Every structure is written in C-alpha cells, then in structure tokens.
Amino acid sequence: MNLYSKYLVCYDIENNKTRTKFFEKMKDFGLQPIQKSVFYGFLNQAEFNSVRKLAFELLAASNDKCIFMKCNISPEEFKQQFIGYDNFIFLEPDGYETI
C-alpha cells in the first residue's frame, strides 16, 4: 500500500495577500508549482486533509475557487503530452517522518 498519492491542486483566489499565503503553504506541503495557480505532487492522507482544511479556512467561497484532484499524471506525461514542461523536475517523496 502506498502512503502517498499524486494530487493536482488548482485555485483562483481574488485577494493578493490570501493568494500569496496559499501559494507559499502549498510549497510548504512539498507540492510543486507547475503554473501560477496550479500545484502538483505527492500528499499523504493527513497532508491532503490539511490542504483542504487550509483552503476552507483561507478562501472565500463567494469569490474564490479551489480544486483538489487525485491524479495519475507521471513526470514523463508532463514532458510528452503537455507543452512547456520539458524542464519540469519532479520530486518524489524522500521518505517518511514521524511527528
């Protein structure tokens, strides 16, 4: 059983301060920005729950949007099927930490 799953997180946040904070938090979770408002990477279930919780706390449902999608896009697919991702460097999870 794999503890990590690949996720795509996409968002549209109106407030600049909130958008910057959310962007930085996505990087803190180890997700990689592949576009200005799109992140890709591995999350375990606890991390995914934290990302969702953060989105519900920070984002205004009346103005902002966020999609969390489990996906199976491989790094090779980025390079073969998408334009502009030739230099995309994908980071695998480097292990497990006990907190």
From TrEMBL:
<comment type="function">
    <text>CRISPR (clustered regularly interspaced short palindromic repeat), is an adaptive immune system that provides protection against mobile genetic elements (viruses, transposable elements and conjugative plasmids). CRISPR clusters contain sequences complementary to antecedent mobile elements and target invading nucleic acids. CRISPR clusters are transcribed and processed into CRISPR RNA (crRNA). Functions as a ssRNA-specific endoribonuclease. Involved in the integration of spacer DNA into the CRISPR cassette.</text>
</comment>
<dbReference type="InterPro" id="IPR021127">
    <property type="entry name" value="CRISPR_associated_Cas2"/>
</dbReference>
<keyword id="KW-0051">Antiviral defense</keyword>
<feature type="binding site">
    <location>
        <position position="12"/>
    </location>
    <ligand>
        <name>Mg(2+)</name>
    </ligand>
</feature>
<protein>
    <recommendedName>
        <fullName>CRISPR-associated endoribonuclease Cas2</fullName>
        <ecNumber>3.1.-.-</ecNumber>
    </recommendedName>
</protein>
<dbReference type="InterPro" id="IPR019199">
    <property type="entry name" value="Virulence_VapD/CRISPR_Cas2"/>
</dbReference>
<keyword id="KW-0540">Nuclease</keyword>
<keyword id="KW-0479">Metal-binding</keyword>
<dbReference type="Pfam" id="PF09827">
    <property type="entry name" value="CRISPR_Cas2"/>
</dbReference>
<comment type="similarity">
    <text>Belongs to the CRISPR-associated endoribonuclease Cas2 protein family.</text>
</comment>
<dbReference type="GO" id="GO:0051607">
    <property type="term" value="P:defense response to virus"/>
</dbReference>
<keyword id="KW-0255">Endonuclease</keyword>
<dbReference type="GO" id="GO:0043571">
    <property type="term" value="P:maintenance of CRISPR repeat elements"/>
</dbReference>
<dbReference type="GO" id="GO:0016787">
    <property type="term" value="F:hydrolase activity"/>
</dbReference>
<keyword id="KW-0378">Hydrolase</keyword>
<dbReference type="GO" id="GO:0004521">
    <property type="term" value="F:RNA endonuclease activity"/>
</dbReference>
<keyword id="KW-0460">Magnesium</keyword>
<comment type="subunit">
    <text>Homodimer, forms a heterotetramer with a Cas1 homodimer.</text>
</comment>
<dbReference type="GO" id="GO:0046872">
    <property type="term" value="F:metal ion binding"/>
</dbReference>
